[in-house]
Amino acid sequence: MAPPKTDFPPIRACLFDMDGLLIDSEDIYSLVTDIILAKYSRPPLPWHIKAQLQGRPGPVSDAIFHSYAKLPISLTEFASQSATLKEQHFPATKPLPGVPALLKNLEGAGIQLALATSSNKRNFGLKTAHLTELFSCIEEEKRVLGDDERLEHGRGKPAPDIYLLAMEMVNAGLRRRGEKEVRREECLVFEDSVPGVEAGRRAGMRVVWCPHPGLAKEFKGREKLVLAGKIGERGDVQEKGATPGWPGEIDDGWGETLESLEHFDYAKYGIKIAA
After folding, report:
1. Which residues are catalytic?
2. Most CB atoms within 10 A, among 65, 143, 198, 270?
3. In sequence order, what are the beta bridge partners of 190?
4. Residue scoring higher pLDDT (115 or 246)
5. Where are the alpha helices (DSSP H) in 3-131?
6. Contact 29, 37 (CB under 8 A)
7. CA-CA distance, 21 to 229, in Å (whole number)?
8. How far apart are CA 119 and CA 201, in angstroms?
9. What is the Cα–Cα distance from 20 to 22, expressed in whole angstroms?
10. 3-state helix, strand, coil in the chain (%, to 5)
11. 262 and 97 Cβ atoms separated by less than 8 Å
């Protein structure tokens, strides 16, 4: 096994997932799902199933859930009931601990910021309309949503496409200003989901994994596999857009786990913030 890489360049761009990473919407997804399950006398959604839903486009996660739950309703009816409940509960989302300070500090340090979320435009609006100040540091053109028409159908996370597109949006802005583009190894992906970590690794970027406590418990003892991007359903098959040789290897130095974004170490990534 090769020693972990340590000679990284300073991070110049941070690319963020959203649900369960920046805001507490993953708990709302669980609430909505459990309400529907209870309606049909089913037990609450277990974490080993929820882990498969996180980070994926809505239609994909809905299909996985429907296959598991075997509810006496169609997938279309489930989606309708789910959408109604989301309209009620998504406007109550809150930033997760450490997020406002992290975004403010990164913006102040001149770091390029972008969003790469599987949420579609409608759900993004429901979740964030009351959080405009929080998201003001991420320019609209650098917000890549799950239903972005530039993303090929069927290539949501753990495919690398959404993070590669987010990086391209950052570079488009830099090119307009005549500034040097960021390279993949100068990008830091922030994720809470396992498929999202794999997407970041397959994009050839460094990754910070900040999982929900329930997810962390589910993957206890397998954290190194997650950080290497070796748990997602795509396995080790090479695909378009992925850097040759990716995902990574165990303890290769490209990823770390944090319990909370409050604990982010700026200096570790060569980021200088105001005292």
Report:
1. 17, 19
2. 198
3. 16, 208
4. 115
5. 25-39, 47-53, 58-69, 75-89, 99-108, 121-128
6. no
7. 18
8. 20
9. 6
10. 45, 10, 45
11. yes
Q: Which two tokens stand for residue 79?
A: 């989606």
User: Is-contact 208 34, C-beta < 8 A?
Assistant: no
Residue pLDDT, tens place only, 235-246: 433 455 555 556
Question: Considering just the CA atoms, what is the radius of gyration of the chain in Å?
Answer: 18
User: Looking at residue 239, what is its pLDDT?
Assistant: 52
Residue type, 158: P
**172: amino acid identity, one letter:** A
The SS3 assignment for 168 reads helix
pTM confidence score: 0.92
**Residue 39 to residue 164: CA distance in whole angstroms:** 40
The reported pLDDT for the residue numbered 34 is: 96
Distance from C-alpha of 63 to C-alpha of 244, rounded to nearest angstrom: 31
Distance of alpha carbon 63 from alpha carbon 46, whole angstroms: 16
C-alpha dihedral sign at 128, 187, 228, 6: negative
For helices 25-39 and 75-89, the axis angle rounded to 10 degrees is 130
Task: Let me know: does 232 contact 195? Beta carbons within 8 Å.
Answer: yes
